[in-house]
Amino acid sequence: MSLDFRDDPQTFAQALIGATLTLDGVGGVIVETEAYEISDPASHSFGGPRGRNLIMFGPVGRAYVYRIYGLHLCLNIVCGPDLGGAVLIRALEPTKGLEAMHARRGLAAAQALCSGPGRLCQALGVSMAHNGLAIDAPPFELMGGDRAGKVLVGPRIGITKAAEQPWRFGLAGSKFLSRPFPKGA
């Protein structure tokens, strides 16, 4: 499946399911994403450019990295035909650089290595130095994949505004999701 950074965030978020993302050769298959756009009150771009969200108003195809709760990092990919769109990478199935991931996370269970945005960033070694870098150029690599399975659609999680938006996407049957999707998703 081809990836087009100019797609709207919802389309791009779905297209990323099954793609492979690595950072310095460490990573795996994306199994869960969430979409955000400028008109969305849950988006960092809502209200216009300022401070940490400036990357969301620059070129598409860039990493938007930010800190939540004062300690965890989140990795997004800036996208869309309009300014202010991005897709949060929520979870991936680890397939490359497992030793590095295990060492960074201090875990043996592969299911817990990248099952959530903070865990994913820790396992891949994402830092604030990656903010603004092209997601399809070293040290990153992003390759479209052949998705084997249905894409689940459900409400976003971990937010308080516009959480009901069905802009969370996941690979059906994946044991690497951050949380299960609601029944009927």
Describe the structure.
- A hairpin with a 2-residue loop joins strand 1 (20-23) and strand 2 (26-36).
- Helices cover 13% and strands 29% of the residues.
- It has a single domain, classed as Roll (3-methyladenine DNA Glycosylase, Chain A).
- With 185 residues, it is an alpha+beta fold.
- It has helices spanning 9-16, 98-105, 117-124; strands spanning 20-23, 26-36, 63-68, 72-79, 85-96, 140-143, 151-154, 168-171.
CATH C-level label: Alpha Beta
DSSP summary: helix tally: 3
Coarse morphology: globular
Beta-strand portion reads: 25-35%
CATH superfamily: Methylpurine-DNA glycosylase (MPG)
Order of helices and strands: HEEEEEHHEEE
User: Helix fraction?
Assistant: 10-25%
Q: Uncertain runs with pLDDT below 50, 5 residues or more?
A: none
Number of strands: 8
Name of the CATH architecture: Roll
Number of domains: 1
**Distance between the first and last residues' Cα:** 22 Å
Q: Would you tell me which CATH topology applies?
A: 3-methyladenine DNA Glycosylase, Chain A
Mean pLDDT, as a whole number? 90
Salient structural properties:
3-methyladenine DNA Glycosylase, Chain A; 3 helices; 8 strands; alpha+beta
